Amino acid sequence: MPAARSGIKVGVVGATGMVGRELLAFLEKSRFPVGELLPFSSGKQRKSVRFKGRGLLAPTIDEKRLSECDLVFFVSADEVSRDLAPGLSASGVWVIDDSSAFRLDPKVPLIIPEVNASALSPSQRLIAGPNCTLTGLAVAGYPLHKAFGVAEVRMASYQSVSGAGRSALEELLGQLKASSPAALRRGQAPVLDARKLRARALPAPIAFNVIPQVGSFDGQGFSAEENKVAAELRKIWRAPDIKISVTAVRVPVLRGHSLSAWITLWRPATTAAASEVLAHAPGLALDNNGGYPTPLSCAGRSGVFAGRLRAGTSDRELCLWIVSDNLLKGAAQNSVQIAQELLDRGWLRRDTS
Amino acid sequence: MPAARSGIKVGVVGATGMVGRELLAFLEKSRFPVGELLPFSSGKQRKSVRFKGRGLLAPTIDEKRLSECDLVFFVSADEVSRDLAPGLSASGVWVIDDSSAFRLDPKVPLIIPEVNASALSPSQRLIAGPNCTLTGLAVAGYPLHKAFGVAEVRMASYQSVSGAGRSALEELLGQLKASSPAALRRGQAPVLDARKLRARALPAPIAFNVIPQVGSFDGQGFSAEENKVAAELRKIWRAPDIKISVTAVRVPVLRGHSLSAWITLWRPATTAAASEVLAHAPGLALDNNGGYPTPLSCAGRSGVFAGRLRAGTSDRELCLWIVSDNLLKGAAQNSVQIAQELLDRGWLRRDTS
């Protein structure tokens, strides 16, 4: 019996993490036919998760049971993917990896289905999903790239704390509790004592603050996140020569990454022409009526949202404001979309079935 | 007896507002010789303020008493300045106006002392201070403009809520209280219900959010703040042809505006050469050792702070991260610096004295 009928046997490595739980919730709501679900905790302790109304035990990783799956999602640390994903995919299991371990490997397709599903191949069963900060730009900018040619991108990010994991979120909530001024002192805006706010998960206190550092800096002063965005965008758009400059900044938002982008084109484009192109862009909801998305208004929603389309410094440049939920389109949703694409192509079956 | 000896008679219109209180605190710490201080509330109710350890009544505006001052600071609404400032300055009183009422008036000098004190004139007693968002860029970018020529500026802002006034700050604190999730539900990042957070002072909820709107939008989709920054920078730098594109965004920070700037030069400049120029820039503290300022680390501190100097999309482009306290260098400090400049030039004396 074909797998598409009986349902797909799905493993999830990192199921108890923040993206893992979003992935299970998204899978549950999607039309993807999960036959059996095998959740694994990537930590040293077994935990439990919920799926379709049932509590499921998520034991520590069991390679043998993973190798019996049709498809395994990795939503865990780079090291875990690096250890397990190549062997699993070589043995015939489809692997969709949300870590950054293989994204820039030339043999591994780096996929955002709305943009480059054509880079999937039936013979390459290890597939990577992109960095969550890049996703909004990749989806919103690609139709402009196809229509007018993108020569340069400059982008400042407003990245939510959930992008740094659960400990960072707990840190924000703890700092807010410790520092929230009940009222304004003598009518003045309070000056908080940053030294009293302990920062461990993030490089500085994030409550009532913004931090222009996401990842460590290289010798030229670029952060790891900024380098990832540039390299992954070039790969996904198949545009190795595009000039990209990014400032990656963490802001005290729970979920949802926002981007202020300047997109310089090869050919001039009016905002009306660009708006027409973006109105039909797959996976993108453009507000072209004077409104704009915010992380609060997009949290928990799938897809990419954009607004404030306007002219930049010349008739070859557009400005755009882009928001997407980093845990959904930036991670869980994109992974499930890739799986659905594999299924629709008829590839998602065990060789042994 | 010269005024500089007996002290200057100083009026403050809007003394009980947020910037007004910062102005009094900054004046108190400065070497500016206040002889007598006349604080006025620009509202309909008299209130009190503190200055040099004493409580002072701030009555409603009294034009006659204002006309007896040597110098009047306006830190209130545009309409108040528009009503009173021209008459006062025509009668011989020096007026330093922090509102936007006269900034783009060709007859009125728009002054950041580190940048264009030379635009002051003994015959023009009405002087404007600039928009608080622009100040950091104007101070940090001007030395680069002088050394290499600035052709284009792109800038995304991370503006604190105090820039929108006390009611906006109270709104942020109220929303945080109403929405702060005590902990993460079932290990997932919470999705807050934005409809439950009432926004009045700002166009959307600001707790756990960022809002890409500061002021109202014009027909081309630019916000009032974005247009102010562009027009005022061109005037202050005396660079009418510079291309400027801004995305102005409000973030849940109490005080301190941050900027991610791309500065495109006429002549190529290495980051080492730019760093050397910026290290000697008046009013600027550059971290050229891999660190960076944040709004929390700069709150309550005077001056402009920058870091993360690095290459942009070409050898003619630099990226810079800039932070300044919008209530201090962005407002109160800048106004007092202008007054000190007038005093140092020997201009700050009554004609009748």
What integer is the average pLDDT of chain A? 94
Show unreliable segments of chain A: none
Summed up, the helix count of chain A is 11
Shape of chain A: globular
Briefly note the structural class of the backbone of chain A.
Answer: alpha/beta
What string gives the helices and strands of chain A in order?
HEHEEEHEHEHEHEHHEEHEHEEH
Overview of the structural elements:
2 copies of one chain form a homodimer. The first copy, chain A, has 11 helices and 13 strands. With 353 residues, chain A is an alpha/beta fold. In chain A, the strands form 3 sheets. The first copy, chain A, has a 6-stranded mixed sheet with strand order 9-8-10-13-12-11. Chain A has a 5-stranded parallel sheet with strand order 2-1-5-6-7, sandwiched between helices. A two-stranded antiparallel ribbon of chain A has the order 3-4. At the A-B interface, helix 2, strand 8, helix 7, strand 9 and strand 10 of A face helix 2, strand 8, helix 7, strand 9 and strand 10 of B.
Chain-wise SSE layout:
Two copies of one chain form a homodimer.
Chain A: H1 3-6, E1 8-13, H2 18-29, E2 34-40, E3 47-51, E4 54-58, H3 63-67, E5 71-74, H4 78-90, E6 94-97, H5 113-116, E7 126-128, H6 132-148, E8 150-158, H7 166-179, H8 224-236, E9 243-247, E10 257-265, H9 271-279, E11 284-286, H10 295-298, E12 304-311, E13 317-324, H11 328-344
Parallel strand pairs in A: 1-2, 1-5, 5-6, 6-7, 8-9, 11-12
Antiparallel strand pairs in A: 3-4, 8-10, 10-13, 12-13
Helix pairs in contact in A: 2-11, 6-8
